[in-house]
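Session log. Operator J.P. requested a structure for one protein chain; no other inputs attached. Running the standard single-chain path with token output.
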Amino acid sequence: MAKKVYEPGESYKYQLLIKHILEMPLAFAPNQEIVYRDKVRLTYRTLNERIHRLANGLGKIGVGVGDKVCIFDYDSHRYLECFFAVPMMGAIMHTQNWRLSPEQILYTMNHAEDKIVLIHQDFVPMLEAIWDKLTTVKKVILITDDGAKPESKIPFDTEYEEMLAGAASAYDFPDLDENTQATIFYTTGTTGLPKGVHFSHRQLVLHAQALLLATGSYESIARCKSNDVYMPITPMFHVHAWGFPWAATMLGVKQVYPGRYEPAMLLKLILTERVTFSHCVPTIIQMLVSSPAAKKFDLSFWKVIIGGARLPKSLALEAMEMGIQIFAAYGMSETCPLLTAANLKPWMLNETMQHNVDTLVKTGLPAPLVYVRLKDPLGRDVPHDGVATGEVCVRSPWLTESYFKDPERSKDLWVDGWLHTGDVGLIDKEGYLQVTDRIKDVIKTGGEWISSQDLENVIANHEAVMEAAAIGIPDAKWGERPFLVAVLKPDFVGKVTGDELRQFVLKASEAGKIPKYGVPDRVEIVAAIPKTSVGKINKVEIRKIYII
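Structure written below.
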């Protein structure tokens, strides 16, 4: 066969494709384990075969390039297989947030134009409730842990493991253009319809590489290396589990998938599988550090990244007392999500975690290839002096280019070449970003602004407070006044009053930690604080309760 002769300037154009991520562990650690709860143990070699079988099975039922494949599942080895097989075929993976309302799930599936659905048996009732209103779904594949098929009006085409067993073990994954769309999912905003964000192969591969650089290449308290054991505690439907399944696979690390989040199972897997690296929102780590069972064990081998909401200093210190190596990172659905991580600078590394806690809970330093600027309402840059605040605006190669089929809301996302996050923050002289609030959550009282997050951080330092939320409520004289709701730790229920908590905040203001106008008129003690589907505090719902 004649060799191809390349003209000057012509060469092989290497495409950044998800399939290239999978090649790396097969060469480096083919026998490394992938674990699902206490039910399944695979190797990367077996994972690769199952990915090929999944692609063949999906192809047999009609999945082609550009088709949307919607997935309802807990964090599992099956989900990991979909992370690869679906986009590697040229199809588009829709990670469905099964915590949304039935109306929102229906909207996202019709809006995305899902063709195939893979669904765990636990979520079948959700699909049944909207089945007659779905407009594009052609086939449904049932996922079970035990092979038992539930009675349902949905005509399941096949069961997941049966499909893999009957499929060929080799699939010729195409050489796609790296800008081919790979994923779509929907943001979990608290107002309006969910917004679809989408990412290409190129964006996801670059993001995985940046994750490894940000969390593994800098000397840090919580480096992710090839000898780590990775377990997500952020749902795989939520921004691709922050992209870590692809990054972990690239490293060839042992991976542990916990399925349904149950405190006892999470702790069991952390201890028995010796999980060393995880990520989650603050509510998850709060749940674990508050568990009497967890306090009995040494967790000094466990490194945890906190995102999705501000990491309170008090919670970080409580985790550190249990030996957990903890620090904050920042991103959002529209940014894939990595933007910043609270890595320590070289001169900080000789100090203890407790000494560095104020840095470790900051939003962090920009990750490689990320640019962060603060903009005022006129679009002018705000100085990085640790005092002046502005809207956090960002650039990187992996930011969503638009909201799917939503040009109107896309106009507000990108302005003058910068993605506008809707967050308010400041950047100190060391370059660390600290997000202080959402623009819509800043409390405006008497012409002055107070950060709701600053108030929440102050009251979280009270020994009795498990979590708290601050909002502004209308006031005839001042426009708005701060209002706090707080959940007490079990040992303090009935022993601490709202007025005592208000006095605690007042003393903090007298010490200069917050301005006097930031002291709330009252603090309400509640049994629980409303949350969004991904565990963030839902201030829209709080306002509905307390603003008449």
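Operator note: The domain at 442-546 is CATH 3.30.300.30 (GMP Synthetase; Chain A, domain 3).
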